[in-house]
Amino acid sequence: MLRDVFLEFNGKDYIVAQKQLFTNIKNTFTVEFWVKPEKTHEVDKESRRGIKGITGKRYAIAPVYGAYLNGDIFQAGVGVSVGTNGISVYEHTKNYFPATLVYETKLETWTHIAIVYKDKTPTLYVNGNFVKSGVCSSMKTVVPSGVFGGVDPYGFYVGGLGEVRIWNTARTSSEIQQHMNHELSGNELNLSANWRFDEGNGLISKDITSNGNNCSINGVRWKEAKRPENKNVLFTFFVPSGGVETLNRQRHYALNNVGVNCEFLYSQEGTGLQNKMDAPIYITNKDHEIKEIINKGNYDAIVVGSDLLLLKKLRDFGYKGIVIYEIQGLGFNKEYAEQFLIEHAPPYLNEYCDALLYPKTPHLIEAFERNYPHKEKFSFHNCFNTTDFNYKDLQMNNQNPIIGWVGRLEENKNWQDFLVIGSELIKKNHSIILWMFEDNTLAAESERIKFEKMIDKLNIRNNLIIHANQPHKKMEEFFSMIGDSGGFLCSTSKVEGFGYAVLEAMICRCPVLSTHSDGVSSFIIHNKTGKFFELGNIQQAVEEGNELMADIPLRESIRQNGVDHIKQYFSPATYAKNFLEMVNYLSNHS
Questions:
Q1: Across 14-140, where does the E strand assignment appear?
Q2: Burial label, 164 (beta-carbon count in 10 A; 0-12, 13-18, 19+)
Q3: How far apart, in Å, are the Cα atoms of 508 and each of 389, 393, 398, 577?
Q4: Beta partners for residue 142, in sequence order
Q5: Residues 52, 88: contact at Cβ < 8 Å?
Q6: 340: DSSP letter
Q7: 3-state secondary structure of 316
Q8: According to the 3-state scheme, what is the secondary structure of 142-210?
Q9: Rg for the chain (alpha carbons), in Å?
Q10: Is the Cβ–Cβ distance between 530 and 514 less than 8 Å?
Q11: Phi/psi of residue 540, nearest 5 degrees
Q12: d(Cα 240, Cα 270) in Å, to the nearest integer?
């Protein structure tokens, strides 16, 4: 949310601008605003005709009757109904009230919405990201509305509303993202109206543009956003690389938004340090330096990633705050995880930490429940910031399908199976290109030698490109290119605690073919959000891969469903809520 002050609607109040219909802006325009809905709305099917928008709606933007000014029954006013269950765009004039765009999703916190009309076709952007296009209007003209909060008897919005802007152009995703979190001057090119709704009192909200289209407030309450909680948290891990480094950047974004100051401690340097983050990062394995960091940090909680010995050291250093032991993955198979928790972990986990934290990965949940039934345990999904990392339309002309792989040259990542699967697919289609993304600073020399020999044995060197140590931000372009090429990401891991590479590919519209590596089960639903194959079953992997490339309707369905799934279940706001609830609970029960 851009501002601390906003307007709260209770389901019977509304705001009216002096100009209720922007009849000078026709067919191509953008309406954007921030919302925090509190009630569900009724969902209709998309259509270019009919009368659907008259009951059960939550109109944050009211669909003003298009003919009320000049009697033009072929002119429709545009409205937007927003509930905790999604967003719908309606158009309204005589004998015409259809939903021209319907998007069902979970909205649980402040969300930025942009409705972009281009040549009468609406497109929806959520938090700056494209999510869906609707159907083209059957009216001669469609125009933005200047009434907010609802209209009797069709339905009223319930929840918070802030920062409404109307532009006379179709804004792009990059333009929306560039300005959604920044205050405007009111003099921006193509800006037709901007109500900040930040006055905090009174019955008028000003249009800050030179058009002066001020709003009259009817019953709506001014509200001040809840101040974030100020907490200091230190996250520790061995090396800034791979999934935990990605997680740390993602949760820094999530927790920083709710006032949590995050700091990070690694025992050695790693390639992930190239991914810049606006937070203190310490690199040391020296006890006296770690002790100094702890003593100066004034941390409410320390989250220790995997390092059992550090748990004891923290207590020896005199730290008396909350210590949470976190596991994102345990070794190269599920049996090792069980062995670790039985043979190595008990004296440390039982004595030196207050709670255990792990993602909703089935084998981790089962192992911790079985071996530590009396220990405080917390399990919730990791998060991902889809505003900063998402699909990029790069207008690719390359028609060669690209099959990607992300990991390290180690046993668990199972690179051998990827090379074999790739070679079998190339036999059927010689134009296929294999892209392998790896951190080459972590591979053993013996593994590198085996890797090079296998490439030559399979005769795929001319079809293989190695992308080593790529910056994280660059991966959104690579994943987008793989998806648009007609290819897919192939994940061959034996076991994954979470699997960020799979999630990142999916959010970039890159379909994924994966083993049942446990952690990815939170992302992939077979033939709906991705595809599975049995570990080691090369023939099945090749068959599923060929279908993923050849069956275009299935492929496109998987690409869109994957994006929707990640946005719904892995939001930063949900992670921040779960994390703060965990810390507050432990603070109250320590």
A1: 14-21, 29-37, 59-61, 75-83, 86-92, 99-104, 111-118, 121-126, 129-133
A2: buried
A3: 8, 10, 18, 25
A4: 76
A5: no
A6: I
A7: helix
A8: EEEEEEECEECCCEECEEEEEEEEEECCCCCHHHHHHHCCCCCCCCCCCEEEEECCCCCCCCEECECCC
A9: 26
A10: yes
A11: -65, -40
A12: 5
Buried b (16+ CB within 10 A) or exposed e, 263-287: bbbbbeebbbeebebebeebeeeee
Q: Based on the number of CB atoms within 10 Å of its own CB, is 431 exposed (0-12), middle (13-18) or buried (19 or more)?
A: exposed
- Report d(CA 577, CA 572) in Å as an integer: 9
Amino acid at 465: I
Does the structure show a pLDDT above 90 at 174? no
pLDDT tens profile 324-356: 999 987 665 667 777 888 888 999 999 999 999
Residue 553 sits at φ, ψ, to 5 deg, of -60, -45
Q: Of 250, 236, 232, which is closest to residue 310 (Cα–Cα)? A: 236
Q: What are phi and psi of 152, to 5 degrees?
A: -80, 135
Asked whether the predicted pLDDT for residue 589 surpasses 90, the reply is no
Query: CB of 287 within 8 A of CB of 313?
Result: yes
- The reported pTM is 0.65
CA dihedral defined by 48, 53, 56, 61, rounded to 10 degrees? 110
Count the Cβ atoms, other than its own, within 10 Å of residue 551: 13
Enter the tokens of residue 318.
Answer: 């005199």
| End-to-end Cα distance, the chain | 33
Q: How far apart are CA 357 and CA 379, in angstroms?
A: 6
Nearest to 403 by CA among 468, 472, 465: 465
